[in-house]
Amino acid sequence: MTKQTQATPLTDEAEARLQKLKELQKLNVNPYPSWNEPKLALAAVLGDFERLKEREEVVRVAGRLRSIRGHGGSTFAHLEDATGRLQVYLKQDELGDEPYELFSKLIDIGDFVGVEGVLFETKRGEKTLLVKKFQLLTKSLLPLPDKFHGLADVETRFRQRYLDLLANPEARDIAQKRIAIVKGIREFFEAEGFLEVETPILQPLAGGATAKPFKTHHNALDIDLFMRIAPELYLKRLIVGGFEKVFEIARCFRNEGIDYSHNPEFTQIEFYWAYADYEDLIKLMEKFFEYLLPRIGMRMKFKYQDNIIDFTPPFPRKTFRELLIEYIKLDIDDYPDQATLFAWAKKHKVEVTSRDGRGKILDEIYKTFVRPKIIQPLFMIDHPVELSPLAKRKADNPNYVERMQLLAAGGFEMCNGFSELNDPLDQEARFKEQEKLRTAGDEEAQRMDDDFVTALKHGMPPTAGLGMGIDRLAALLTDSHNVKEVILFPTLKPKE
């Protein structure tokens, strides 16, 4: 038996609006008509106001009513569309008694209307449209949030994002800035000669990252499939296939916890670059931020929470090992195996288990003691091999790999990249080590991908690749502490 969902009781205002809807229907006024009349955007009207006013041209616009102020036989209102806001003026002797009465009694804030008329300026100099004709386009049956108090409740803001966008201009600004960021990303990589591609979201194996995937089932093929956790292994297959510079703005899915920097569904830019290494990635990322920040109207120094973040390149570099020595005086070379490192972690109250591999323990130590303390942009380089099953080993020390991460703002891992492992036998061996960890209980360990190993056996040129979370980037550049602020519809626990 399914649980019945109880209808939300109507407020007095909602009930009043419903009655107005019925009155409109009695008057044979369609409260939800089709409408395809040519109209001007409000920003265009305001931008060309003087010319349109002088010529007394009839102007037609449409939008949502955001305020209504009646004064006997006249009414001032504000009309809003996606581009701006314009005052409109309705006079009883201009419209006629019946249309004016209909507007006065049956039209509410939140309704959509189409109006036409001529422009003028009020005594106070406000640009205004004198309405000659109006048409109801949509009757709003629920009131909008209080314009004076906005929409402050965080839970409501995320669950009903449409109200957040209506009530809070800063929410719309964040959304628009994120759009500009994505556009800037695409323009930058296209200018650098990268080709935008698409790779599968449903995959027979979830690879390319250390994460727990979402699982589904394809009925026709009778096989389990996984929502991708990263596009990496498919993008690398394209490098094997002869492409040399590819990128994807990819939706990815990881069955993990939700916090200020994580959402189970997220967006990232991932790219691969033949005949390049991680040093090239570092230089390209510095060039990227030099391009992007001015492109979206930002300076290289900007405020994030309580800090001024300086993204002026070049950024300093420190190895993974150096950072742990600097912040917690832990030299990981003194703890070369899982047992000794696990003992250190337990002594210092790091949340790990005896089933965790050395790589997982190292990651938790770093996340606990080091990452929160890094405020200014910093490239962390040369990670332990156990942390990076897809990265190329360093020639002078095979216990470490050619990997880089850009860190900033006390916990944001802005991007992650490395010189890609293209030795098929080494890759196969590392996959097998990951399978051992999985068998021991690590659900995030990577799976053996025989087809990817086969692809590498056909030969992949020296390649560098990088992934960058767009949600985290947008959060940083909009001074948002939580990625939910920059995701229009974040994942939330259902209301009980």
Structure description:
With 496 residues, the protein is of the alpha+beta class. It folds into two domains: 127 residues, OB fold (Dihydrolipoamide Acetyltransferase, E2P), CATH 2.40.50.140; 262 residues, BirA Bifunctional Protein, domain 2, CATH 3.30.930.10. It is 34% helix and 25% strand. The chain contains 16 helices and 20 strands. The strands form five sheets. It has an eight-stranded mixed beta sheet with strand order 6-10-11-20-19-18-15-14, with helices on both faces. A five-stranded mixed barrel has the order 1-2-3-5-4. The protein has a three-stranded antiparallel beta sheet with strand order 7-9-8, with no helix packed on it. A hairpin with a 3-residue loop joins strand 18 and strand 19. The longest helix has 23 residues. It starts with 11 loop residues before the first helix and ends in a 19-residue tail after the last helix. The N terminus is likely disordered.
Keywords, please?
496 residues, alpha+beta, OB fold (Dihydrolipoamide Acetyltransferase, E2P), BirA Bifunctional Protein, domain 2, 2 domains, 8-stranded mixed sheet, 16 helices, 34% helix, 25% strand, elongated, disordered N terminus
